[in-house]
DNA sequence: AAAATTCAGTAAAACGCTTGCATTGCCTTT
DNA sequence: AAAGGCAATGCAAGCGTTTTACTGAATTTT
């Protein structure tokens, strides 16, 4: 018994109506007499008909699918965003094609290209840098794009973020306030605007307000990994830092463990504020004080924004900035 | 200047060949004279032509897209599998539609249905239970399916796992060996075969070999969350357990922190072995001894298996079992 | 009661591509 | 030199929908 794909045509024949009518009932078009609708629905049920989304996509030029480019699903920061994205997508009947990029420009471009070939209705991009080649791909198509947890200094496309300048300024301020003379800043590459422009700016502003001189040797560029953090602590000690602001939670946990492993007391002898408030921050002892970014919400809002764009609705502001907090826990005094 | 979608037809016209020929060069069909190929390629380049994958999918009945159903991307266990899946998928030119199910049967069924409507070429399913309704959806279509890190006791579909019985037996054995009289088992719901059938079986086997009586009060069903673990530790103390095997790493971290918070020494007064060896296990102090499942590989192998199925290649064994280890760290003596 | 309007439904043309089959040259064979 | 074979290409029929334009019938308006 070969399984025969059954089409809209079969349904039409069985129900004694035209394909168009079947299409209307499937799509909830009101121009169908209730009796007809019922009849068609019965046939659909009986035949176990399931509309072919590919054919639909070709005819309607809509795939109800959005592409999501993520550096690494395995990183809690991004997976939290992704979860928010998916939930809202589902809510609006979209599906998500998820692609890992490792922040590798070549992969990003190539994956972007195949997503566009697949005719996604929209794109959500995560990653710390928006290179020119990516930007070029974006503008090459008219597919709407939203950045989630990522910054476009030029504000060409939509984006959802928190105010990184203010957040880091506040965190630095707190660390300075509690008596630290040498507060280090450990982020990813400074070539990424979020680090080199925003976080660094907030950091400097706080120093300035406290009349503390800026010392470049307190700035560290790292991979956002536990191992990197572990190794970093030694360097922090070497430059005489007594506190650090970490741009990534895994990194922060690494720093914490690095300190603990050397018998350094946190927060008594060393303070840490991290940036993403992922689950990790609660799991350590002491727990990590963190900038509280609403990760899930950033993803959710980004996707919501994208739905509006795909719908060609009026957008009041395509760069949205969500609020943040500093969540005090055990890694600061 | 409206952006006009440019089609294979435009390329054909500009290159003075038929659509068929263009299609052939795009698809790498060898039956094209090098000179013609070159000419077509040039036009493609000049016109910036990008084949429409939806149309392709309709015509060829292949979408080069696979559906991935995951309980929650935010859970490291699953995101690690997902990463393996995506990498191999990319390697074989597939994309992944990722959908979170929360292990909720209704969501699973509904998402499965929309994935099939989207004509995915294959499916990877993660989740601890394969309900009848899901199984029914599976067999309703002829789309190949592989379970990753999940068990189908009936072996109807492909699956990639480790030998959970042996793993838990070994873990239990070690805990018994080091002098624990009362070893607890903390997993998710026992209605899930992986827990109720496999892990429990391994646990019992170890007890039996050590001539220790089985005591039901040492078995705990929990959510795989940090909070649940935190709360669980009290209960473990109450029943006099001095060691536990946790089915989930977040749960294990919770238990560990629960112990630490009460001043109980790990591993001296309480031992813990967890199950998934995610990054988390390295981040705690002490670090967690764990069953070492090759998470990434499970995903990768599952996807590889799926590619074979989609290719209709001969499959030697559709239930594959990967090796495991017990990685000794600080949470056991 | 004729005209205008709305409602239900039909037919058929896209949508952009793949692919089986047919065709055309151009070489080899004999 | 006729016949056969093969490589390269073209033709056109799908693939399963949506959607536009249209038609009749039913209903309302005047």
Report on this structure.
- 2 copies of one chain form a homodimer.
- Chain A has 333 residues and is α/β, with parallel strands linked by helices.
- Chain A contains 13 helices and 12 strands.
- In chain A, helix 7 links the parallel strand 3 and strand 4.
- Chain A is elongated.
- Chains A and B meet through helix 4, helix 5, strand 2, helix 6 and helix 11 of A and helix 4, helix 5, strand 2, helix 6 and helix 11 of B.
- Strand 2 of chain A pairs antiparallel with strand 2 of chain B, so a sheet runs across the interface.
- Chain A binds a DNA duplex (30 and 30 nucleotides) through helix 2 and helix 4.
Uncertain regions of chain A: pLDDT < 50 for 5+ in a row?
A: none
CATH topology of the largest domain in chain A: the name is: Rossmann fold
**What is the ordering of alpha helices and beta strands of chain A?**
HHHHEHEHEHEEHEHEHEHEHEHEE
Our count of helices of chain A gives 13
Q: Please give the oligomerization state of what you see.
A: homodimer
- Can you tell me the overall shape of chain A? elongated
Helix and strand composition category of chain A: alpha/beta
| CATH secondary-structure class of the largest domain in chain A | Alpha Beta
Largest sheet of chain A: 6 strands, parallel
Query: How helical, in percent, are the residues of chain A?
Result: 40-55%
Mean pLDDT of chain A: 93
Distance between the termini of chain A: 72 Å
**Percent of residues in β-strands of chain A:** 15-25%
Number of strands of chain A: 12
Computed over alpha carbons, the radius of gyration of chain A is: 25 Å
Order of strands, main sheet of chain A, comes to 2-1-3-4-5-11
């Amino acid at each position: 018994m070969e399984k025969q794909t059954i089409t809209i045509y079969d349904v039409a024949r069985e129900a004694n109506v035209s394909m168009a009518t079947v299409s209307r009932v499937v799509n909830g078009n009101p121009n169908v007499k209730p009796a007809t609708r019922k009849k068609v629905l019965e046939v659909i049920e009986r035949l176990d008909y399931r509309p072919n989304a590919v054919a639909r996509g070709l005819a309607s030029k809509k795939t109800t699918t959005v592409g999501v480019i993520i550096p690494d699903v395995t990183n809690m920061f991004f997976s939290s965003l992704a979860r928010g994205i998916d939930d809202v997508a589902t809510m609006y009947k979209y599906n998500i094609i998820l692609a890992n990029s490792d922040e590798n420009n070549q992969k990003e471009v190539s994956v972007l290209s195949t997503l566009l070939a697949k005719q996604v209705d929209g794109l959500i991009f995560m990653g710390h840098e928006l290179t020119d080649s990516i930007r070029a791909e974006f503008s090459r198509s008219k597919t709407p794009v939203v950045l989630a947890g990522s910054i476009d200094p030029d504000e060409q496309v939509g984006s959802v973020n928190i105010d990184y300048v203010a957040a880091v300024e506040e965190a630095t301020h707190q660390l300075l306030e509690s008596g630290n003379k040498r507060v280090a800043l450990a982020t990813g590459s400074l070539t990424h605007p979020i680090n080199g422009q925003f976080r660094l700016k907030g950091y400097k502003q706080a120093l300035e307000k406290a009349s503390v001189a800026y010392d470049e040797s307190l700035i560290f560029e790292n991979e956002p990994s536990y191992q990197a953090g572990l190794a970093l602590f030694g360097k922090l000690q070497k430059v005489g830092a007594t506190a650090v602001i970490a741009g990534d939670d895994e990194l922060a946990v690494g720093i914490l463990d690095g300190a603990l492993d050397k018998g350094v007391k946190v927060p008594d002898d060393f303070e840490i504020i991290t940036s993403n408030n992922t689950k990790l921050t609660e799991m350590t002892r002491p727990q990590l004080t963190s900038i509280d970014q609403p990760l899930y919400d950033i993803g959710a809002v980004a996707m919501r924004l994208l739905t509006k764009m795909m719908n060609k609705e009026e957008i009041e502001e395509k760069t949205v900035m969500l609020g943040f907090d500093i969540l005090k826990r055990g890694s600061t005094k």
